[in-house]
């Protein structure tokens, strides 16, 4: 069993999720590689005791991430920090020769994302991937298999979204995601958008242009002192894209929704694909179910398939049991460690988000900002060197 020694920058929610996934690695019996968290870094060490109890191999604790990058006993870094810190920390991590697993959107805007990618291109031996766990649910893997096998026929229409209601309460205190200086102008697109784009981009569905409707629904929120201060970033985004299928060359409409204020939604990620041969839809509202409509020249009936626990990476959990959010996180980390060891992903749709796919999201979101500003459809530039 090979061990990859990780340093963790940022001890917030997603840092806890990684530590928890590492602690239950025995759920993935077929993997011949495992993570071990050996170093912790955060300006706020209030949760240090929890991490020490969860990660017994920790030998280094620091408030300066550069001390961690200089540590020869650290092989890889998981960096979960606000967007304005991505360029500096991601670039220095890669330049230090540490493998990097980072949070989206890999830079506060398209300019900084390009700077990050230029550094990545200069260090091809460093594996860099972006966090996005929902495609690792068994239902999503079933949908992806339908795409891979060509069962859908020509794509008619796609709708994907990530909706939650965590900001529905106007009295919820403001945080860094509501400030352009720390979150960026993308707002909810930078925070939620890669989750929505992951499968469409991997499928080769390329947005050619976009008409965006962006909403700042609650313009002020209380700060830590109770004073009302401006909320500068977009709460909700709906993007209608003219999209090309790389396989067939045909174009179709694709609607992408990213909403922090979606009444009735807890944390819903969904994808619907309509095709000329078959259609399919999935949603984390019922995370184990796939709805499939296959055209046989007679009735058009939606079939409900209960997938159960059938992830990309075999688990000790029985196939009849339900799959959950923490399982998706574990599968995502399994995909990263597998690719790090094997040099390639397990399969096309069992791989983590690549820097090129993140760059594609920046081109889309930058065009969406322009579309909102001009109230018009904006073309999306192709990949640039």
The domain count comes to 2
Approximate shape: globular
Percent of residues in helices: 25-40%
Helices, by number, come to: 10
Unreliable sequence segments: none
CATH superfamily membership of the largest domain: Dihydrodipicolinate Reductase, domain 2
For this structure, what is the CATH class of the largest domain?
A: Alpha Beta
Element order: H for helix, E for strand: EHEHEHEHEHEHEHHEEEEEEEEEHHE
**Main sheet?**
9 strands, mixed
- Strand fraction band? 25-35%
End-to-end CA span: 39 Å
CATH topology of the largest domain: Dihydrodipicolinate Reductase, domain 2
In what order do the strands lie side by side in the largest sheet?
16-15-14-13-7-12-11-8-17
Rg for CA atoms: 21 Å
Secondary-structure topology with pairs:
Layout: E1 2-9, H1 13-23, E2 33-41, H2 48-54, E3 60-62, H3 65-69, E4 76-79, H4 86-95, E5 99-102, H5 110-121, E6 128-130, H6 138-148, E7 155-164, H7 180-183, H8 188-202, E8 205-215, E9 220-222, E10 228-230, E11 236-245, E12 251-259, E13 267-275, E14 278-283, E15 289-294, E16 302-306, H9 325-342, H10 355-374, E17 378-379
Parallel strand pairs: 1-2, 1-4, 2-3, 4-5, 5-6, 7-12
Antiparallel strand pairs: 7-13, 8-11, 8-17, 9-10, 11-12, 13-14, 14-15, 15-16
Helix pairs in contact: 1-9, 4-5, 5-10, 8-10
